[in-house]
Design goal:
By secondary structure, the chain is of the alpha+beta class. It has a domain at 94-241: GAF domain (Beta-Lactamase, 2-Layer Sandwich), CATH 3.30.450.40. It has helices at residues 5-19, 23-32, 36-39, 61-105, 110-125, 156-161, 223-241, and strands at 129-135, 150-152, 167-170, 189-195, 204-210. A hairpin with an 8-residue loop joins strand 4 (189-195) and strand 5 (204-210).
Length: 245
């Protein structure tokens, strides 16, 4: 059977008309679903609201409200993205801190722990240098006299951190070699924490340095840094104060 060309064209037109929504249908749907735009705010960005009023001295409140809504949507999107990035960074830092702690706990001796701190922690924590040292006492433990350990004068921790303070974060650090030795020229940002004394172990300092200015800065969270410092502190006390069986 041969179809008439005009009939075929008419059928296509009819099919097209059936899939086409009229203005009345769209308006009716929106009236029946008043929360549609509230539930789908992104659609508003592609809509062009009509100017309801014209003439000098007349404020179009509809345009004003729509522009403000678009701005709020953009701000919300930026805040959400910022929260996602912050969460990712926090998870990364947490993983690094946990890996560092596991490495410290695997040390077989005090000397081995010091080498892990100075050689391995910079790679694990993604910093340029990590140093550790203790204040000099009248009768220092021979294990505290090492090229891998910094030696500080009595009261150095209070002088650097403040009396009784446990840490300081420096966004723009300048070291004369006391903390980071030959690597002091690399450091532009640092985190310095106090290693509390034990029964025979003197007060010490653990310092992380980065060549990136502002990597560490005041107001930054210190929970993970404090946790890692306490682990170093406890491990040192165990190795230096408990008798070897």
């Amino acid at each position: 059977m041969v179809k008439n060309i005009d009939d075929t064209a008419q059928n296509k037109t009819d099919e097209s008309d059936e899939s086409f929504l009229s203005v009345e249908q769209v308006a009716g749907y929106l009236l029946d679903n008043p929360d549609f735009l509230a539930d789908n705010p992104d659609i508003l960005k592609s809509l062009t609201p009509p100017a309801r009023w014209s003439g000098d001295g007349v404020v179009d409140m509809q345009h004003f409200l729509m522009d403000r809504l678009r701005s709020e949507i953009d701000n919300l999107r930026e805040c959400t993205q910022g929260l996602i990035e912050t969460s990712r960074n926090n998870m990364t830092n947490q993983t690094r801190a946990h890996t560092a702690v596991l490495a410290l706990l695997s040390a077989g001796s005090f000397e081995n722990m010091i080498r892990i701190i100075t050689d391995d922690l910079p790679l694990i924590l993604d910093v340029d240098v990590v140093s550790i040292g203790y204040e000099v006492t009248d009768k220092p433990d021979e294990r505290l006299v090492s090229s891998n350990l910094r030696r500080f004068g009595e009261g150095a921790a209070d002088s650097l951190l403040g009396l009784g303070e446990d840490f300081i974060l420096l966004g723009d650090a300048i070291d004369d070699g006391i903390l980071f030795g030959s690597a002091s020229g690399l450091v532009h940002s640092a985190a310095i924490t106090r290693l509390r004394p034990g029964l025979t172990t003197p007060t010490g300092l653990l310092a992380l340095g980065s060549r990136g200015q502002g990597v560490f800065h005041p107001g930054q969270g210190t929970e993970l840094l404090t946790f890692m410092t306490r682990i170093v502190e406890r491990c040192a006390h165990n190795w230096l104060e408990n008798p070897v069986e």
